[in-house]
Write a structure and sequence with these properties.
mainly alpha, single chain, 64% helix, globular, two-stranded antiparallel sheet, Sodium/glucose cotransporter
Length: 615
């Protein structure tokens, strides 16, 4: 056929991307006197600028799943996915104004240190263990389990379409990633991310520009998408069972991603590494622009995919075996006359992988050193700890490559396990919210809340894996093969390729399956968070939470918010004044802030108002 395969130039471009990443690692291993302390290694010495940190946050958020998966998602379900732009805005606002001030003024390396400061060391252990074994939150973030799939899935998709060597790619990305994480620490991770965001945008742009040229203008792409029903932005159906509607994306999505941005180690670790709190906040807001740009690129790619393949869908016509292979298929289809450009696209997909994996490795190393090693062996010197951090990076890098090998054998099973473990983000977010927003939450309440949130999340999660929701809940849009000139036998199989391991005949679906288990996947986190917060509040009040005195520096205070407006003070980390605090200032602000729950509004008497936040 006319479909190209990979040429020498494509491999050259790909190799260059890996090489530059490795060189950055070597540079930061020796620049500025190297990594003297574990803080230098894990936190970049807390001297980073806002701009590289912002791009780095964007990069690790954007795995290859975004490069390959989001365009296919828009091709299949329409552009309603773009409503996530609103979600990202809300999430960044919450992270910058609620979680960041508290974490930054405490100056912690591991977010779970906070749990010990605020509650007790058992909760810190719970948080750490949950993080290392499963996933810190929605599986876009770090976990040894997830990282295996992050490396393996794009390699497989690209291999099946382009014939790009599968294990060569997996091992190369794994090794390079481990190499620069181990040598350069957080600084190398951040600066390679900056380079990789550039590559990603370049890869996306090349596809978009070429598609616009092929289709003869952007107008035609938009027109095709409109008549194909792909521009379905506004769907205000309040039904929580439907997969993507305006409400599930804005409400559910905000909780899901807040678990990722606000309290997830790999993200928090980076913005705490900024040199001042002002830089940390600005980095989050710049990163928001990056997220929007990448969402726009992915959306345009998805619409271009539809416009080009509207009469002959390669997935139904059995040209590709899974939806995430559509993008590589398109690239080879329209860019095969340009040597090196398909390689650029593959490099951009792998940049996504590299940036996600490197932040995972660094975050896992930080959590292990700070939460497990430092408390146990108090006598270790800083120099030794920095060597141990390097050792941990090397170790987790090896684990990730091993996990990729495991993913190749147990793909579907692992995917199912992940979507279940991805629900852990909700309860953890609830736990941090309790600590930061409720003065009276105590250790017992927090623990019981975490447990109940966890149990409910797991219940819904496992249920939804066993009984996947019906197509009328997910609403896939129509795909046509009318214009195909390939003689393949039957076009009957249009079922979802992501069917999981546990396939049960549709006859025996219990009543729970169609209401409770069909909950939109975005609401799983929301459910976990709300259950954790509500149970935590009730139990804390019952076990005398009002009597305890929590130090105000562990909570969000009015000063944290007001200091946004005084530039002079914001450059120096201000000390919290405990003396002149008037506990009964019932100020008006904060009450109508969407980030705080209105559930307790009527109950809260004057004495439960701390700084005007109804708690």
């Amino acid at each position: 056929g006319s479909m190209g395969r990979f040429t020498v130039w494509d491999y050259v471009v790909f190799a260059a991307m890996l090489l530059i990443s490795a060189v950055i690692g070597v540079y930061y291993a020796f620049a500025g006197g190297g990594q003297k302390t574990s803080k230098d290694f894990l936190m970049g010495g807390r001297s980073m600028n806002a701009f590289p940190v912002a791009l780095s946050l964007t990069a690790s958020f954007m795995s290859a799943v975004t490069v390959l998966g989001t365009p296919a998602e828009i091709y299949r379900y329409g552009a309603i996915f773009c409503i996530f732009a609103i979600t990202y805005g809300l999430v960044v606002l919450c992270s910058a104004e609620i979680f960041l001030p508290v974490f930054y003024k405490l100056g912690i390396t591991s977010t779970y240190e906070y749990l010990e400061l605020r509650f007790n060391k058992y909760l810190r252990l719970c948080g750490t263990v949950l993080f290392i074994i499963q996933t810190a939150s929605k599986p876009q973030s770090c976990s040894t389990l997830y990282t295996g799939i992050v490396i393996y899935a794009p390699a497989l998709a690209l291999n099946q379409v382009t014939g790009f060597d599968l294990w060569g790619a997996v091992v190369a990305t794994g090794v390079v990633c481990t190499f620069y994480c181990t040598l350069g620490g957080l600084k190398a991770v951040v600066w390679t991310d900056v380079f990789q965001v550039g590559i990603m945008i370049a890869g996306f742009s090349s596809v978009i520009i070429r598609a616009v040229v092929v289709q003869g203008g952007i107008g035609r792409i938009v027109n095709d998408s409109y008549y194909g029903g792909r521009l379905n932005f506004w769907d205000f159906n309040p039904n929580p069972l439907q997969r993507h509607t305006f409400w599930t994306i804005v409400v559910g999505g905000t909780f899901t991603w807040a678990g990722m941005y606000g309290v997830n180690q790999s993200q928090v670790q980076r913005y705490i590494a900024c040199k001042s709190r002002f830089h940390a906040k600005i980095s989050l807001y710049i990163n928001l622009l990056g997220l929007w740009a990448i969402l726009a690129c992915a959306a345009l790619c998805g619409l271009a995919l539809y416009s080009i393949y509207k009469d002959c869908d390669p997935w139904t016509a059995k040209q590709v075996s899974a939806l995430d292979q559509l993008m590589p298929y398109l690239v080879l289809d329209i860019l095969h006359d340009f040597p090196g450009v398909p390689g650029l696209f593959v490099a951009s997909a792998y940049s996504g992988t590299l940036s996600t994996v490197s932040s995972s490795i660094n975050a896992l190393a930080a959590v292990t050193v700070e939460d497990l090693i430092r408390p146990c062996f108090r006598s270790l010197s800083e120099k030794k700890l920095s060597w141990i951090s390097m050792g941990m990076s090397l170790f987790y890098g090896g684990v990730c490559i091993a996990m990729a090998a495991l993913a190749s054998v147990l793909g579907a099973l692992l995917q199912a396990a992940l979507s279940i473990f991805g629900m852990v983000g909700g309860p953890l977010l609830g736990l941090f919210s309790l600590g930061i927003l409720c003065s009276f939450a105590n250790g017992i309440g927090a623990f019981v809340g975490l447990l109940s949130g966890f149990v409910i999340s797991l219940w819904v999660g496992i249920g939804s894996q066993i009984y996947p929701p019906l197509p009328e809940r997910t609403k896939p849009l129509y795909l046509s093969t009318a214009g195909c000139n390939i003689s393949t036998g039957d076009f009957t199989s249009t079922e979802n390729p992501f069917t999981t391991v546990f396939n049960t005949p549709t006859a025996e679906r219990p009543a729970l399956a169609d209401n409770w288990y069909s909950l939109s996947y975005l609401y799983f986190s929301t459910l976990g968070t709300l259950v954790t917060v509500v149970v935590g509040i009730i139990i804390s009040l019952l076990t005398g939470g009002l009597k305890q005195n929590t130090d105000r520096k562990f909570r969000l205070t009015k000063e944290d918010f007001l200091s946004n407006f005084s530039w002079s003070k914001s450059e120096t980390p201000e000390k919290v004044e405990v003396l002149n605090w008037k506990p009964f200032t019932a100020a008006a602000e904060g009450t109508d802030n969407p980030a705080f729950s209105h559930i307790e509004m009527d109950v809260a008497s004057n004495k439960n108002k701390v700084n005007g936040l109804h708690i």
